[in-house]
Amino acid sequence: MGQAAISVDDVVKCYDPAKGPVLDGVSVSIGEGESVGLLGPNGAGKTTLVKLLSGVTRPTSGQVRLLGQDPFLDGLRVKRSLGVVHQATPLDMMLTVRDNLRIAAMFRGFTWRRAGSRILDLVEEFELTKTLDNLAFTLSGGQMRRLQIIRVLIAPPQILLLDEPSAGLDVLGRRKLWNILDELKAQHGTTIVLTSHNLDEVERNSENVIILHRGRVLRHAHRREIVGEFGGRAATLSYSEPVDVGAVTRICAQVGLECRSMSKTEVEVSGDHVEAALPALLERLAPVTGAPRRTAITEVSLEEAFIKLTAASAVTEGALR
């Protein structure tokens, strides 16, 4: 890994002192070419951190650096190497799609003659060709989001910040975005920071994960490490007939496993040693449920690990109060 593309050092951000800090001593370092998913419950500080990184606002205290520069004080120099897709759609609604793109190219230091061919290719790929001469306010929400994505991809950015980028996009739009992210990482070594409530999207597009909780960094690690530590593996037991979930849960507890109902005929069994304990569990379950028609071992998802981690943190904080 090369030098840090993004460095956040003991950052505090407070909008209203009476309400306390939105970010409280956040420190993270993200290497060049790294792809990071930024997760957290609503109000955790994700969007505020993206605003700090993009130079929209400055920290109350602490230091933010992108490629060694302050994104607030050195905004113009930083923005030439930075692409940002915000939750809000910062378009000039009374200009056409074409003019919005011309202005975006100028801000990136390109003339239409130089960048027009790439822009029109992106417009075609995101199926906005027929809207080029339409005023921006006439576009649908999904079309506005596509236009916003095109604007930041006029030139491949060194750093790309994506705050809920697939909001409003249909399945095909999301797939196109994901393919472009793959291309940016593979061909240009772009550093990507992605926030999304769709954890499948984060799992698909991020190597490492930063979890914010109540304005603090709860975890910063590879996604597999987080899944392994707070998730692990699970066994799905499928039966031909409905099962007594209460009885199955009690038997699972006897061998140190947890159980949750997936449907009337399917349960998920999880725990650190689920594979090793499975034979003994099935033997104990046989008199109650009979043999399952299918048994499948699966990885617990990042979403489930995230829920367990934030829930455990909330319990710990509550006990310390």
Write up this protein.
With 321 residues, the protein is an alpha/beta fold. The chain folds into 2 domains: 4-227, Rossmann fold; 233-299, Alpha-Beta Plaits. It has 11 helices and 13 strands. It has helices at 46-53, 75-79, 97-107, 112-125, 141-152, 171-188, 199-205, 223-230, 245-254, 274-289, 302-320, and strands spanning 4-13, 23-31, 35-39, 61-66, 82-85, 159-163, 191-195, 208-213, 216-222, 233-238, 258-263, 266-270, 294-299. The strands form 3 sheets. It has a 6-stranded mixed beta sheet, with helices on both faces. Helix 3 (97-107) packs across helix 4 (112-125), helix 8 packs across helix 11 and helix 9 (245-254) crosses helix 10 (274-289). The longest helix is centred in the C-terminal third of the chain and has 19 residues, at 302-320. The radius of gyration is 24 Å and the shape is globular.
